[in-house]
Amino acid sequence: MSLARTALRGWLSDDLPERQPGFYCWHHHTMNIEELTIKQARELAALFSTQPSTTHPFEIGKPYLIRTVTMIDTGIIKAVYPTEIVLTDAAWIADTGRFSDAIAKAEFNEVEPFPDGEIIIGRGAIIDAVRINKVQRSQK
Prior knowledge:
Structural class: alpha+beta
Number of helices: 3
Distance between the termini: 50 Å
């Protein structure tokens, strides 16, 4: 069982374990950090990683249209982290027009570029992502 699943199971439990020396209590979950396996320690380290992820389907340096749960963004992928993706030359696409035409031509009805051009998107909010042939930086 993964460390995250074990922590979640303990978090949902109504039992409040006694606190003992050498134990870490995280909201109803007790874990002896001295008894972590190497796999569990790696899982824990990955949760707090600031290094770019090497396992992802994205192509760094390529333009993408990314639909999230609340909006559509375009941009060139600069970096991919375990929980975030960084885009440069980014814009919010308020209106794509006909979606398949928009993807094929990378032309949109309404474009709002981000002023500094770089944004960070939480990967958990991504619905889908598709490669496009260019990004639009002109307000439209």
